[in-house]
C-alpha cells in the first residue's frame, strides 16, 4: 500500500483516520471509531461499508490504546 495514498484515505462513514493493518494473509484499513476493517485486495482498498468487516473493540484496539488501557482501570 502506497504511503502517500494511505495518508489521503479516510473512513467513508466518519471521515476519520485509517490505520493499515498487515497480517500474513491480508491487509486491511482499520477505522477504530466505527469499528470497521476495510479489506485491501490486489493492492486496492475496498472502501465500501458492505465490504468491511466489524472488528471487536476488545481484541482489536490501537496499539497505544492497549498500553494506556492498563494504566487507567
TrEMBL record:
SUPFAM superfamilies: Trm112p-like. Gene3D superfamilies: 2.20.25.10. It comes from the Bacteria. It holds the Pfam family Trm112p. Residues 52-67 have a biased composition (Basic and acidic residues). Transmembrane segments: none annotated. InterPro entries: Trm112-like. Residues 52-73 are annotated as: Disordered. Belongs to the UPF0434 family. PANTHER family: PROTEIN PREY, MITOCHONDRIAL, ZGC:162634. This is UPF0434 protein PRZ03_04840. It comes from Roseateles albus. The lineage of its organism: Bacteria, Pseudomonadati, Pseudomonadota, Betaproteobacteria, Burkholderiales.
Amino acid at each position: 500500500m502506497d504511503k502517500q495514498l494511505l495518508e489521503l484515505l479516510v473512513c467513508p462513514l466518519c471521515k476519520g483516520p485509517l490505520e493499515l493493518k498487515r497480517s500474513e494473509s491480508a491487509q486491511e484499513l482499520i477505522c477504530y471509531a466505527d469499528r470497521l476493517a476495510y479489506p485491501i485486495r490486489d493492492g486496492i482498498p475496498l472502501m465500501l461499508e458492505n465490504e468491511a468487516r466489524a472488528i471487536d473493540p476488545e481484541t482489536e484496539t490501537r496499539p497505544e490504546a492497549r498500553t494506556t488501557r492498563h494504566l487507567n482501570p
